[in-house]
Backbone:
């Protein structure tokens, strides 16, 4: 295999993903240089009793320190919140260093390859896999002797543990922040009896939230004013159609098909992908004309303004929906993306190979993803990755989106980022450029899938990925 240093590659793509969390009050960070004893916290009315990792944290790491790197924002805030409790239980100090989106990957990759100051990193899944391929991460099975006896690996959502935590069949990271695209829809319109009667009269069918791609196209067409003057809303469908985002539209449609196989082969030029792209092109007729210019903020704003019936988006949309200025607050329902094959995003946390306190770093990443301690992160938009927390009634009731989020995470089959070590960014660029060419009428579907296949194959071949 040709060793390609991460410093010599184009930075991995950034996927803006966020979640939505429950309640709870954040305590102020302890300012003392010594760990302080904190009262047992309560989240969602649940007392978090097991914050000593089943007795494996007994202050034995006093005098030791680790540094954890991540992106500035909610990821940093969530880690700092958990660090207070970890410090109290372990006796150690945890420094969280963060970098703004846009240069966080460069800074962290530079440290992993040269400076070696970070003991653990919290980053998008595709980055973590590249770090593992480069030998920058520890295998987590090496820490079984010091692991929490109640760690319960089977409690992680299976699809998430496999995609987020493992590389080349070995466990290098714990899942930390799950993300998947979901269908958000105007439940007030779907449940309106007059609207339902009109739909039935015109189509001969009962109005229902679509579960198939064909149904989504039918419903989107009916509720687009340009196609139906009687529609109570402007557009039947909206999503992020801009460069860096548009590939998700057809990837959500692919079913069992994937873009890249598990053995790093391009698998995009086939009937399954072509059919998925046909659906995307149909949906274009029922979306805003400026669709290919809509990114996260622009697309969300249009949906929150009440312009569209349905939107496929990451869970963080809920924050805009629930904002006091939102015109659709309390009017939105949630469903798995039609076709039941939503793309996944997500973040994982891992121990660096050069850490001088790797055991302590392991205990920290184990702690922040444990059953009780992960509830400390939820109020900071880091949703649970453990099945048992979705099964806790108090947690599930805190967020009406959670039942569908769990279902979507379970059904997700592939990452939105092309998951090939070192060259994820380059492959994503190919997928986006060709998708944009199709959306803007520069080429047809056959040319699009052929171009993708050829360019992906060449990029992977040049990288000599085994």
Residues:
């Amino acid at each position: 295999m040709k060793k390609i240093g991460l410093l010599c590659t184009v930075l991995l793509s950034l996927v803006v993903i966020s979640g939505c969390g429950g309640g709870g009050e954040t305590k102020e960070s302890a300012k003392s240089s010594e760990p302080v004893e904190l009262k047992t916290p309560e989240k969602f009315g649940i007392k978090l009793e097991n914050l000593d990792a089943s007795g494996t944290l007994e202050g034995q790491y006093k005098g030791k320190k680790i540094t954890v790197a991540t992106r500035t924002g909610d990821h940093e805030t969530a880690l700092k919140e958990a660090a207070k409790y970890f410090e109290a239980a372990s006796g150690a100090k945890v420094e969280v260093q963060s970098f703004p989106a846009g240069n966080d990957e460069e800074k962290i990759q530079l440290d992993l390859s040269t400076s070696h100051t970070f003991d653990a990193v919290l980053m998008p899944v595709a980055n973590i896999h590249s770090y593992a391929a480069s030998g920058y991460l520890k295998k987590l099975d090496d820490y079984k002797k010091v692991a929490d006896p109640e760690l319960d690996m089977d409690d992680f959502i299976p699809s998430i543990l496999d995609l987020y935590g493992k590389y080349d069949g070995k466990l290098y990271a714990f899942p930390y922040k799950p993300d998947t695209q979901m269908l958000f829809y105007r439940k007030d319109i779907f449940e309106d009896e007059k609207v339902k009667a009109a739909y039935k009269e015109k189509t001969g069918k009962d109005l229902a939230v679509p579960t198939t791609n064909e149904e989504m196209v039918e419903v989107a067409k009916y509720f687009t004013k340009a196609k139906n003057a009687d529609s109570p809303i402007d557009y039947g469908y909206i999503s992020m159609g801009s460069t860096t985002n548009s590939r998700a539209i057809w990837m959500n449609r692919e079913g069992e098909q994937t873009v890249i196989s598990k053995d790093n082969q391009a698998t995009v030029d086939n009937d399954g992908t072509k059919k998925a792209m046909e659906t995307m092109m149909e949906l274009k007729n029922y979306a805003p004309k400026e669709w290919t210019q809509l990114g996260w903020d622009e697309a969300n704003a249009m949906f929150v303004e009440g312009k569209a019936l349905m939107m496929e988006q990451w869970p963080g949309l809920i924050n805009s929906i629930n904002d006091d200025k939102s015109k659709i607050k309390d009017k939105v329902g949630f469903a798995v993306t039609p076709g039941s094959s939503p793309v996944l995003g997500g973040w994982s946390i891992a121990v660096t190979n050069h850490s001088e306190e790797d055991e302590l770093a392991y205990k920290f990443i184990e702690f922040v993803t444990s059953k009780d301690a992960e509830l400390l992160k939820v109020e900071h938009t880091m949703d649970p990755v453990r099945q048992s927390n979705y099964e806790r009634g108090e947690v599930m009731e805190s967020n009406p989106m959670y039942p569908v989020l769990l279902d979507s995470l379970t059904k997700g089959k592939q990452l939105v980022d092309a998951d090939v070590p070192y060259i994820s960014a380059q492959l994503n660029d190919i997928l986006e450029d060709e998708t944009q060419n199709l959306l803007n009428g520069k080429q047809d579907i056959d040319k699009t899938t052929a171009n993708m296949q050829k360019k992906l194959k060449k990029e992977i071949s040049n990288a000599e990925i085994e």
Remarks:
- Residues 240 and 284 are 11 Å apart (CA to CA).
- The chain has two domains: 14-179+345-411, 182-341.
